[in-house]
Amino acid sequence: MNALNLVFQFADNFAFVVLAAVGLAVIFGMMGVINLGHGEFIMIGAYGTTLSANAGAPLPVAMAVGVLVTAVMGFVLERTIIHRLYDRLFDSMVATWALGLILTQGMRILFGNSIPQVSTPLGNIAYGEFSYSTYRVLLLPVALLVLGGLYVVFTRTEFGIRARATIQDPDTARALGVDTDRMYTATFVIGSALAGLTGALYAPTLTVVPGMGSSFLVEAFVAVVVGGPSVLLGTTLSGGLLGTIDAVFTNLFGTFYGQIAMLLTAIVVIRVLSNGLTGLVESVRNRVEGE
Amino acid sequence: MGLGDTFDRLRRPFEGPNTLGNSRAFWVGFLVVLAGLVGYPIGFGSYAASSAALYLLYAILALSLTVIWGYTGILSFGQVVFFGVAGYSFALISMNLESALATTLALPVAVGLATLAALVLGYFMFYGEVRDVYVTILTLVVALVLNTFMAQTAGSEWTVGSVALGGFNGIPAIPSLTFGVGEAAVTLDGSAFYWFTLAALVASYLGLRALVNGRFGYTMVATREDEDRTEMLGYDVRRVKLLVFALGGALAGLSGVLYATWGNYISPSVFGITFASIPVVWVAVGGRRSLLGAIVATVVIEWFRQQLSATGSQYALIIVGVVLLAAILFVPEGVVPRLDAALTDVRDRFATNADTPEGTPE
After folding, report:
1. ipTM attached to this prediction
2. Of the four listed, A39, A220, B159, B212, which is most buried by Cβ atoms within 10 Å?
3. A90 touches chain B (CB under 8 A)
4. Model pTM?
């Protein structure tokens, strides 16, 4: 019984870590920009969803609106601000931080400290004395679907190949006729849309408030740090590791200790593996191929 | 003549390529401004002085980030961690022991604990070869986790000695800064606290000027410019970064103790995401490579925020965000260095005009 509880908890945490981190990871892994306003991008996606659902749109449509709004915002911000800061690592962090401040406070001024919430759909799965929200259980396959979709986009499509070429060697890519500016913009928009999707998916399960972004930050940043530079593999692996640790510690001691355990994991992983989990995978692969 | 020479000899240790203001004129201006600041409580009374002391103690926090970020190239969002650790430590020590001597000793002990926290965190990061953005993210995560932790300490099981941590509400009734033993103790509040804070700020500023213009300061700047090359030249980059980080922790800790005694209060919001970002705003706007810039920007921005929140405006944070964004986009080196460059420009133009005899063909 307790084992099953742990499995559900793990599924929930894995989905949360992956979804919280994926937008951040795409932008960081592909462009080297740490979007410190990531939490606020998620918040915008959640607001888009909740507000349109309150206006009468069915939930799936409302979610699409949330994603769309965040993607458009990402596009505008990239074209006006972010693209000036690509070779200035710290400046881009500070600038995206400033954007986060403006977005949080802006939403507070526009919509107040709280808006009517959307209730969680689809009811519960009950098992013995435990009961789980069906909707939250479904987030696990959704998270896997997102990872799979990204894998296909970045490895199997023309766009993905051009985008990765731009990341690896912008000069050569440009010489071969890739519009690198457009690739950067597109990648940033994809990252923003993913953040929006996270917000849309969690809007019915969390309290949608202007400061909600910060509740995703710890998981998102720790996952990206632990994962290392290779986006998809890194996010999947760190989602698995952190999801397990969080599930175990939250189950044993409570939510706060789950967070502490994740932080300690991040410090230990970085201390031992400076390139994160994907760095470890890389070096194992190199050793095996070398023999 | 002799006086001028003495003056020049005195200012030499504080001057060099790593700071603005290397002229006799600057130091005369500095002394004039300092005299004005010292006289401020006399002119405006102890209430005004005590409000102004907040800006001065924040400026020490800003200096702690300048030395780490501007001079050594480590962007830390975690200065508030050491600020808060020292503030909470001071509260717990002084309120548990409840004697003038304990309160006196609580200041150095709290600053020591903040330094220790910085040493431990710095050791794991720098000796673990954690670099660049990862340092920034880790320091931010530490602050956020501490915020979560302190906020959930409302229950009665969270007491240290006789003092409850108080969760979201924080710890009230922290004693004011006190020096001495028993009856002979002096408690600093109002104007006296202002003067003490001003002295601490000036000492930090001058000390850091001497530091960054000395041998160690050159190593710091070399580390910022090119870590690998500095290491190749035989410097222990990790040790340099660790020492600077510890120094930053100590300064932030000092600022934190002053903060806790200023309002006799500390709460988990010092670890919160908004407060964690504010030092970065001060330093980025003022000029990250300028100690003076950080101080000026801190005082101006905080004064401005105070005015805005006093009028009940919700736009304070938006304006802070916009100012920060504008600074990053249009004045990346910071406002104060930009002003300094403009000033030098004007002076040079005047000088050339005066030097060029009239009617001389160019």
Report:
1. 0.77
2. A220
3. yes
4. 0.83
